[in-house]
Amino acid sequence: MSLQNCILLALAGVHTAHALNIPKKFKADLYNIGTQEHLFPYLGGAGPYFSYPENYGIPIDTPSGCEISQIQLLARHGERYPSLSKGKKLLKTWNTLQNFPDEFNGSLSFINDDYEFFIQDMDNLEMETTTENSVNAINPYTGEMNAKKHAQEFLAQYADFLEDNREFAVFAAGSQRVHDTAQYFIESLGDKFNISLQVVSEEASSGANTLSPGYSCPGWDPEDNEDIISKYSTSYLKDIAQRLNGENPGLNLTKTDASNLFTWCAFELNARGYSEICNVFTPEELIRYSYYNDLTAYYEDGPGYPMIQAVGALYLNASIKLLEQSEELDQRVWLSFTHDTDILNYLTTLGLFDDGKKLDPTYTPFRDHVFHKSWFIPQGARVYTQKFSCSNDSYVRYVVNDAVIPLENCSDGPGFSCEAKKFYKYAKERTANQDFFQACNVSSVSNTTELTFFWDWNTTHYNATLLRQ
Ligand SMILES: *[C@@H]1O[C@H](CO)[C@@H](O)[C@H](O)[C@H]1NC(C)=O
Ligand SMILES: *[C@@H]1O[C@H](CO)[C@@H](O)[C@H](O)[C@H]1NC(C)=O
Ligand SMILES: *[C@@H]1O[C@H](CO)[C@@H](O)[C@H](O)[C@H]1NC(C)=O
Ligand SMILES: *[C@@H]1O[C@H](CO)[C@@H](O)[C@H](O)[C@H]1NC(C)=O
Ligand SMILES: *[C@@H]1O[C@H](CO)[C@@H](O)[C@H](O)[C@H]1NC(C)=O
Ligand SMILES: *[C@@H]1O[C@H](CO)[C@@H](O)[C@H](O)[C@H]1NC(C)=O
Ligand SMILES: *[C@@H]1O[C@H](CO)[C@@H](O)[C@H](O)[C@H]1NC(C)=O
Ligand SMILES: *[C@@H]1O[C@H](CO)[C@@H](O)[C@H](O)[C@H]1NC(C)=O
Ligand SMILES: *[C@@H]1O[C@H](CO)[C@@H](O)[C@H](O)[C@H]1NC(C)=O
Ligand SMILES: *[C@@H]1O[C@H](CO)[C@@H](O)[C@H](O)[C@H]1NC(C)=O
């Protein structure tokens, strides 16, 4: 769907919902929306969805002569408001600006013109953005619309396969926004499908039977690699604060405030469609901020933190088991929705982007830099596993955010896929002895040692209470 169509769709909603309520001051957004999409890759995955930028040109379609036998999806919830903790930090910076007694000068002068901060209701924190709760109803980057559009793309892509597979369970982690994303997706698929939404608990007590293993992992300490991450220079934050303070004598923004401006930019895009604060940064500052996010993801949630291999093995083992059982299972479409870190953990164990080189905190690398957090897990991220058979053989392949990403060591099948037996061998080497329960010290919070919901949902019926996290 083009951006124009998105806007029209959003406006169609406006006519019925709150026809005369469009604040005039956001009229300029109509012309400005769409002009900031080049910034999305620099926002650490907090901003709106975008397709994987380094598409190798491999068609997503099933290679000719092949037939799909199973589709799996692990997707992130869509565009959202900030978390409670980020929201509070942003409001602190916003307060500092509001208390500035003079007119703003320079790049902050947009605040003088009737600007209203994009967090207008604390109840929206943690929540998916929708047409209804958007700051400007013409916002084309809502999580709601992204999920509905994704479902339509899924339908179009796999139409023939879905024709014979219209009854299946969809799985969502028990977070409100994750659930909502799955619900919008299901709604958009329409009533030709009979879908049972299973909501899997995010409570630590669910142990290994979870889509969000981070919450069941008391052994995981994000501070463990702080010494490495702290080597990264934050001079770009000081530059931003100094520049803005220089333009506005008496304004005392700190490095922390400068850092908050990036999250403001990302989440205002999700909630409004356009953000003046994004225009404060130089391209160089955006690049430095983006690499900072790569570093933190790498050392807290990714390959730089050895425990993650075991955390990601939980879903990867289940995924392998589903692939191996594709002939026996009636269900052939396995769609799951969760959080960004859980997807990153899984990609880490899978090794799809693992070139074996550690990210260097002492400078900003360019050549050979494959670990781009925002490219993997923007809002609405989607990782598909395709299994297809051609002649007598089966093959497995990954599609990350609309791009086929071949396994570097196994891509000689049709469409750069990996022959299934070779794939199982590869995947089992990566997961061998990666024991989530033990590595995470799960026993201190739960006795549930196995992920079973894919196999017992029909009798257990997962309907966890939704959490605001
Ligand atoms: C829909 O699927 C459920 C199983 O999840 C089944 O019990 C029910 O009969 C199905 N309904 C229709 C209309 O096919
Ligand atoms: C595991 O949990 C137990 C009980 O809470 C605690 O005593 C122990 O220190 C933990 N071990 C690790 C490695 O976190
Ligand atoms: C306004 O900011 C500009 C830089 O954008 C600066 O040159 C100028 O001195 C500032 N004016 C005041 C009154 O501070
Ligand atoms: C900024 O800091 C200066 C020097 O400490 C102080 O005089 C001024 O009041 C502060 N400005 C604001 C808006 O707090
Ligand atoms: C498929 O397997 C059958 C039985 O093993 C064999 O006869 C046939 O030649 C195979 N076809 C291809 C295209 O490899
Ligand atoms: C790919 O193969 C090379 C050489 O055998 C090996 O060093 C590397 O670890 C492999 N990479 C992955 C992701 O398995
Ligand atoms: C994944 O499976 C391997 C065996 O293939 C096992 O060694 C490992 O402990 C399993 N990990 C999890 C988290 O299930
Ligand atoms: C696990 O089971 C043991 C033995 O039944 C029990 O004592 C312990 O409290 C349980 N732990 C948790 C976290 O539920
Ligand atoms: C779920 O169980 C019901 C009742 O046993 C059965 O009719 C239905 O086919 C099952 N659905 C799936 C997808 O296994
Ligand atoms: C889930 O379903 C069970 C059985 O129908 C019910 O007892 C329980 O209250 C439900 N839980 C929630 C959170 O809705």
From TrEMBL:
Say which domain of life the source belongs to.
Eukaryota
**Active site residues of this protein:** H77 (nucleophile), D340 (proton donor)
The reaction(s) catalysed by this protein are: a phosphate monoester + H2O = an alcohol + phosphate
Q: EC?
A: 3.1.3.2
Alphabetically, the GO molecular function entries are: acid phosphatase activity
**Which InterPro entries would you find in this protein's record?**
Acid_Pase_AS, His_Pase_clade-2, His_PPase_superfam, Histidine_acid_Pase_euk
Q: Please give the start and end residues of each transmembrane region.
A: none
Keywords assigned: Disulfide bond, Glycoprotein, Hydrolase, Signal
Asked if the record carries the keyword Glycoprotein, the reply is yes
Disulphide bonds in the chain: C66-C390, C217-C440, C265-C278, C410-C418
Residues in the signal sequence: 1-19
GO cellular component entries? fungal-type cell wall
The family database entries (Gene3D superfamilies) matched by this protein are listed as: Phosphoglycerate mutase-like
Q: Family assignment?
A: Belongs to the histidine acid phosphatase family.
The entry's protein name is: acid phosphatase
Give the originating organism: Lachancea meyersii CBS 8951
